[in-house]
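Page 47, continued from p. 46.
Same chain as before, 66 aa.
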Amino acid sequence: MDDGRLTGAQWRMSSYSGGNGGTCVEVADNLTGVIAVRDSKDPDGPVLRFSRADWSAFVAGIREAR
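Result:
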């Protein structure tokens, strides 16, 4: 669902999604002030929006857990 604020989003598949048609997450990080995340199987469905600071903290937390 694009409510206008995601116009111009360039979606890329997460490197951890595997590309096997299963669980796939797409990220758009080319937007000003926001990182958008969606389910690639439902591109017109809901989109999670993160501030750049929150996204950086999220990714850092995942990296630390590995």
